[in-house]
Specification:
The complex is a heterotrimer of chains A (253), B (326) and C (285). With 326 residues, chain B is an all-alpha fold. Helix content of chain B is 76%, strand content 2%. A two-stranded antiparallel sheet of chain B has the order 1-4. In chain B, strands 2-3 form a two-stranded antiparallel ribbon. The longest helix of chain B is centred in the last third of the chain and has 27 residues. Chain B is globular, with a radius of gyration of 19 Å. The longest helix of chain C is centred in the N-terminal third of the chain and has 30 residues. Chain C is mostly helical and 285 residues long. Classes of the chains: A alpha/beta (253), B mainly alpha (326), C mainly alpha (285).
Chain lengths: 253, 326, 285
Amino acid sequence: MLLEINNLTKKFGGLYANKDITLHVEEGKIIGLIGPNGSGKTTLFNVVTGFLQPTKGEVIFDGDVISNLKPHLIARKSLVRTFQQVNLFKGMTVFENVLVGTQCKLPNKIFKVIARTKDLKQEEKRLFEKTEYILDLIGLYDKKNVQAYSLPYGHQRILEIGRALATDPKLLLLDEPAAGMNIKEKDDLIELIYKINQKGITVWIIEHDMNMIVGVVDKVAVLDSGEKIADGSSEDIQRNKKVIEAYLGKEVI
Amino acid sequence: MSSEKVKVYLDKYFLIIMALFVIIISLFIKNSYFYHILILGGIYSILAIGLNILTGYCGQINLGIAGFYAIGAYAGALGNLRLGLNFWWCILFAIVITGIFGFLIGFPALKVKGGVYLVLVTFGFAQIVQVVLFQWISLTRGPMGLVGIESPQIGTFTFFLPQHWFYLIYAFTILVVFIAGRIVDSRIGRSFIAIRESDSAAQSIGISLTFYKVLAMVITSVFAGIAGVLYAFYMSVVSPDAFDFNLSVLVLMMIVIGGLSSIPGCILGALAMVIIPEFLRKYGQFQMVLYALGIILIVTYLPNGILGLGISIRQLFAKFINSDKH
Amino acid sequence: MFIIQQIISGLATGSMYALVAIGYSLIWSGMRVVNFAQGEVFMFGAFIAVTMFVILGQSFLISTIAGLIIGAIMGWLIYKFVVLPNKRKGFLFVIVGCIGVQILLRNIAIIIWGSSGICFPSVFSIKPIKIMGILIVPEDMWIFCIGVIAMFILYMFLNKTKIGTAMRAAAQNKEIAMMMGINIKLTDSLTFLIGGILAALAGILLAPTVFVTPQMGASIANKAFSAAVIGGFGSVPGAVLGGFILGIIENIAGGFLSSGYKDAIAFLILILFLMFKPSGLLGRK
């Protein structure tokens, strides 16, 4: 198992945002995470990626316990996430956004950087090439000098994924990547996710759009009010009574 | 030429432009008062560039750069007067001392979340430094200050004429511009900017907030320390009242007015803040009123700085991208 | 005995710190900005009052009201012309703008009134009276009482009136407040207005005890800042608590140390709090 979440609980004051969740993510798969609004999905992502500390339980990634690590260390271990609300470096260009991502695992050799040694320049060249490759992969190569803030919304979301890809993740967590996209953009997104997965990257997606989920994922986990209520293939989930109740009780699919 | 292109050329060739500036000035200017103003401008430029790294690039507000400047100046003065170190050793000495302080202040201050706290800690730090300098008479002679700092020497040559100082100070300024340029135009600089743009996004791609914020703080304090030593040796006296909150504010305004996160902008801002008050001196009190109005207007209506040099990161990277294509 | 006397005179100082500190916390909690020109509004309020009282021979009450009105107007002007246009550019720009206002006001004051200042004659008696064996200066008591009354009025306003409650709601959660139809611009400008009034009042209260000079804004601003942080930056009750604590500690320390170090006390306490309890005594988090 690439990612093991064992009995994870996250409390805010008296409120259980995540309650005793046990969930495993198999390497190489595309997993979904769904649930009504407020069921604790983003909180779970936040805990797994170190932005929040778990109250109880543990998270094991690639054999290492990461439950109490800081976010940047988790990212360096190849567990990377995108955000529910677009979280780009707005003041940078498309190219620069992805470029910063490529630096993720490099050591901070301050004096070498200032001295601009030969091998450093080589490294920089490779980073640039990698950036261009990723921009090509996500389809934003021709926009590389555009300021990130002026991109249309759909492209901004794709750019954020590109930036995450630049870090060489083993596991990529996408938090509602399709939010606000139109049909064409969603199709492109699905294609991108497949491409990413084909490269061996495990993908875990939070989504509201059932069609997207059904089409893409191998397995789905369902949260409701902080607890995991179901876990299985998309067909099983769609027929699962508890899941249907959770959704109909709170919103219409 | 469009303003975008101007900015690109400015960044690319700035070192050369500065060197030319220094040479031309020294050939044509003989007025020692003029040199004095330019020299102060050069020292302030170093302060401004330092502050810009922490505040302009990394986005952390620092209201206490006067404190590091003071520590540098006194380290230089005490190093020379009490420890017998010459100018060059004092520079190293000050770098180490201010670096240590930068780290000590930066580390806890930057751990605390929320922009206000760094503002307050740096503010308080600078105030405490000034109070200590005033009160620790046995070390600093308090308000009487320290006098008689020796002039720098290289071999048998002593720097004492305005022209000598002009060259010396601007040699340092150009060096600082060079180093700052290297820092900023690198993965370190990109990490700084990333942190400024979004803490959380930066973390999510492996950037350690603590490491880079503290690094920025140390760089800023070291630059301020260098400026302090230059100041101490140039004036050959130091006293605590020169290092007050107004100075911290002045430097902050230099970088905002010159254009945040633009190194040429820092120089511009520094020179502007030294030269303009001199021009306005004729008006006496009105000078300050105009100055203050100018600040408010520029901050409000020209957020990119007087010449619009500020926060346009493109220019930083335009170099690399263009050279990559060809 | 000595300590108790220091505590009591500390209450007067503290009440002034508290008034200005409330301004800082109110503005921070409502708008996430720091008004660095608060000290200058304090100073201007004092000057207006002293001008009316000493130069124009008006009664203390009228002078005070004039000072308060000017304080309110200044607070609003700062909001409208410096804070509002710069808010979206970020904290740094607002700070620099407010510092510009600080310099502006200080120098306007120097132009109008000269830099050496005006003496505000004592309005309340400075002859100490003995109550229960303790020497109390009536002036201190008056300052304390007026300050507390002002804080009480503010409390009633914030908690018992519609607008005050709207202000508190906006401070808690801007988005929800907007959705509920609360006019954020109104609450924001009111916040600055009130901050201005409080600062001016503090200035007027301080005026009879010292020379009114254009520089008096600077030191009060620093102290009140520290007070707000000690109490928890953004918390109005915290500002009150912090103000009194600072005033008292300063007075006690001032009895033992030289006055130069007395100023350093405020900063020392500030730094200590920032390092070990940055949320202050009553702050959130």
